[in-house]
Amino acid sequence: MLPLRPQSQVGAPKTSLSLVSSDPLLSPDEPRSNSDNLRESPAESASSQETWPIADAAAAKKMENGKAEINCLEQKVIHRVSSADKVTLQDVARESIATICEKMHRLPEEYLEELKNGLRVILEGGNGSQHREDFFILQKLVQSRTDLTAKTLVRTHRVQLEILVAINTGIQGFLHPSISLSQTSLIEIFGYKRCRNIACQNQLPADDCTCEICTNTNGFCNLCMCVICNKFDFEVNTCRWIGCDLCSHWTHTDCAIRERHICMGPSSKSGAGPSDMFFRCQACNRTSELLGWVKDVFQHCAPSWDGEALMRELDYVSRIFHGSKDPRGRKLFWKCDDLKEKFLSKKMDSKAVCRAILMFFQELEVDSAKCLENGESGRLIAPLDACNRIAEVVHEAIRKMEMVADEKMRMFKKARLSLEACDRELADKAREVTELKMERQKKKLQIEELEKIVRLKNAEADMFQLKADEAKREAERLQMIALAKQDKSEEEFTSNYLKQRLNEAEAEKQYLYEKIKLQESSRASQGSSGGDPSQMLMYSKIHDLLYSVPSKADSQGNERHPFRTNP
Q1: How far apart are the first and last CA of the chain?
Q2: 26, 187, 188, 391: which could form a disulfide with 194 (CB 3.0–4.6 Å)?
Q3: C-alpha to C-alpha distance for 361 and 355, rounded to whole angstroms
Q4: What pLDDT band is residue 563 in, cutting at 50, 70 and 90?
Q5: pLDDT, tens digit, 9 for 90 and up, residues 262-288
Q6: Domain map (residue ranges) of the chain
Q7: What are residue 18's DSSP bridge partners?
Q8: What is the H or E stretch that residue 382 is in?
Q9: CA pair distance 222, 284, nearest whole angstrom
């Protein structure tokens, strides 16, 4: 049998997120179920669903609180975004890449996170058929577009690309904040060039497989997905997965039972009659024996199982061998039912059940060897039959050696590809480190230059402040000088004006004096001839008036400038 199913790559996200099938052929009205044959296969078993590992209650509660906070942020964000800039999931699925990318660059991070949260709610399917219909509408819009190619998706916004990939694959893990894949990986997942299982991430087709399923099924990975339902999960070291001895493809046990790929077949040891339970692989149509495979799984993994896991595995074995007509298969079926009943009734603990089943497999092996020896000793083998038996054994040995060689070659190719990928990643990281160092040095030089400019500007500011203070003091000094000169000029103007008025008054006085004097002389000459008394009185008044003019001029000057004194 093929070795146990390998563990997925390290770093699988530990979130309690459910995933939706990306099969476009399914519709909301046609769920995958098999309720008619509940004994042989559950309607929707955990192994036939794409599910993330279940987190603990604290993580779930934390997630609910995060959703509540996002819901609270929704109202705040909506008030800050105009109706023209708003983007809905239908817009992302329907509108052109450039239009949505431009809008998303203008939107706040809170709004984009709320948009992703809305798609996560739809993928979780909490509202039943309504959410399922919404999802299939979005998926139909995305898968009907012809402009979503590797060249155009390079120009998308990060959130836009995550939403498109989540809609196309039906996996909400691409929207989770703790998962950050590169843009190239997301584009390859969208174009079915890389496995959509975040814990696998192998290039497709895996191991360069050329079988019909790997070649014709979009997004199928033979390393982690079921050949029948094309889904994956994170279960390893379990009877829930059956591997093909020849092509190394894996199938869910539930799917194999439901599609009747587990059935009776001719024994490779006895060669006569249907005596063993076999698994027929849908990928290569070859058969693999199941009893030895179940024995290997229990011998390698049962000691590490707890009671609940052990009961689940016994239930799987019971359903595998439910229709067995082989005595060993029937004994195993009865033994599993007996051990489950004893464990549930508290008659045996998990360790005792584990020891009992392992002991049962050893007894089956001893009984098979005894039966084979008795059959060989009870009859003589003809030479031709002996040669045919030897040829069959040789052919079987050669076939197994070829299988091992092919498996080793595939492992070697995979290891070489992983080594080359690691070398490329190491070279990329080294280049990134070099670029970061150069960028850091550049930033350091820029910071030093900015510090020099800041110091120079501070010095200039101090110098200009000093000059401003000096200019202010000089202005105050000039203002004081101007005020002093203004007072002095006013005094000089007043003094000159009064002197001018005094000179004018003296001139007028002198003029009148000369005129009076001339008149007196003429009057004296007339008096001797007998002048008029009225004229004498008039001349006397004029004389008095003339001698009183300087005093009037002085009093007028003092009235005009009461605060000044005549020079």
Answers
A1: 138
A2: 188
A3: 10
A4: very low
A5: 887 765 554 444 467 888 888 888 888
A6: 83-191
A7: 51
A8: none
A9: 12
3-state helix, strand, coil in the chain (%, to 5): 65, 5, 30
Tens of pLDDT along 514-561? 888 888 888 777 766 555 566 666 666 666 666 655 444 444 444 444
Pairing of strands 287-289, 250-252: unpaired
Helices 129-143, 109-124: axis angle to 10 degrees equals 110
d(CA 79, CA 171): 30
User: Are 181 and 122 in contact, with CB atoms under 8 Å apart?
Assistant: no
Nearest to 45 by CA among 285, 187, 241, 179: 241
How far is 223 from 238, CA to CA, in rounded Å? Answer: 15
- Gap between the Cα atoms of 482 and 469, Å rounded: 20
CA distance 347 to 353: 10
**CA atoms of 289 and 56, how far apart (whole Å):** 38
* 329 CB burial (10 A radius; 0-12, 13-18, 19+): buried
Amino acid making up residue 197: N
Is residue 265 helix, strand or coil? strand
Largest CA distance in the chain: 212
Q: Residue 396 is encoded by which pair of tokens?
A: 């079987």
Please give the Cα distance from 103 to 455 (Å, whole number): 42
Are 247 and 281 spatial neighbours (Cβ–Cβ below 8 Å)?
yes
- d(C-alpha 562, C-alpha 556), whole Å: 10
**Each residue of 124-176: pLDDT tens digit?**
877 778 888 888 888 888 888 888 888 888 888 888 888 888 888 888 888 88
**CA atoms of 206 and 447, how far apart (whole Å):** 50
Our CA angle for 251, 253, 257, nearest 5°, is: 110
Q: Which residue is listed with tokens 């004097």?
A: 517
Q: What is the DSSP letter of 323?
A: T
Share of the chain above pLDDT 70, in %: 73
Taking a C-beta distance cutoff of 8 angstroms, is the pair 116, 179 a contact? no
With b for 16 or more beta-carbon neighbours within 10 A and e for fewer, the 99-131 pattern comes to: ebbebbeebeebbbbbbbbbbbebbebeeeeeb
Distance CA 406, CA 310 (A): 33
How confident is the model over 486-509, as a mean pLDDT?
A: 91
